[in-house]
Amino acid sequence: MLKIYGRANSINVRKVLWACGEIGLAFDREDWGRGYRPTSEQEFKRINPFEVVPAIDDDGFTLRESNTIVRYLATKHNRTDLYPTEMHERFRCEAWMDWASQDLYVDIRPIVMAQIFKVPEFQDPDIQKKAINGWTRVMDMLEIYLGSGQDYMMGDSFTIADIPTGLVVNRWFSLDFPKPEFPHIQNYYDRLAERPPYMEHGRNGLP
Ligand SMILES: N[C@@H](CCC(=O)N[C@@H](CS)C(=O)NCC(=O)O)C(=O)O
């Protein structure tokens, strides 16, 4: 059976859990990472020498990197509805996943470090202001994109491109800081809420 290594409150582990829910996959999960067993233990490093969660062991095949794991699971289970096979559509989907994990994510970390993990050096108001401005700028791009008539990242239907973005959007609405109204993102957030796996692993009360 598929085994997932990683704490269920990690945004990157939640991508994999949400994907499993969409695909309808059974899995075992072990808590590893901050607050649980340290990823520096040899048992974890055998699965992922880079010491970050998530990682999986799928009947002896080990894999790391959350977006890659999501793509692997969708491919393995032939979910072409979730991960398009037409070449241009496929690479548009990849681009959105990369964008959400890099550009959309880069300024979240200082806010999470300050608000969730209470790390003293991130409490600096200048660091927070810079992060909030940076995150808001890129969320504004998402607002414009969704406002151009897109129900989901790939247009009319849900795909795995929505998984990294949907988790960032949940974080946006869950963390407390001054933010503008983004009605199209709010609609997207509510549309995703129609999906039980999102409610279980994404919009589940955790930022
Ligand atoms: N690029 C990696 C990033 C993984 C990552 O940074 N994971 C964080 C949790 S979200 C982690 O392992 N933090 C250390 C810990 O929990 O011990 C991925 O997408 O899988």
What does it look like?
- This protein is an alpha+beta fold.
- The protein has two domains: 2-76, Glutaredoxin; 87-199, Up-down Bundle (Glutathione S-transferase Yfyf (Class Pi), Chain A, domain 2).
- It is 50% helix and 7% strand.
- It has helices spanning 11-23, 42-45, 66-76, 87-101, 108-115, 125-147, 162-174, 183-192, 196-201; strands at 2-5, 28-30, 55-58, 61-64.
- It has a four-stranded mixed β-sheet with strand order 2-1-3-4, covered by helices on one side.
- Strand 3 and strand 4 (61-64) form a beta hairpin.
- It is globular, with a radius of gyration of 17 Å.
- The two termini are 29 Å apart.
- The mean pLDDT is 97.
- It binds glutathione (GSH).
- Residues 10-12, 33-34, 39, 52-54, 65-66 line the site of glutathione (GSH).
Strand residue percentage:
5-15%
Distance between the termini: 29 Å
Query: Averaging pLDDT over every residue, what do you get?
Result: 97
Structural classification: alpha+beta
Ions, cofactors and other ligands present here are: glutathione
Q: H/E element string?
A: EHEHEEHHHHHHH
Strand order of the largest sheet: 2-1-3-4
Overall shape: globular
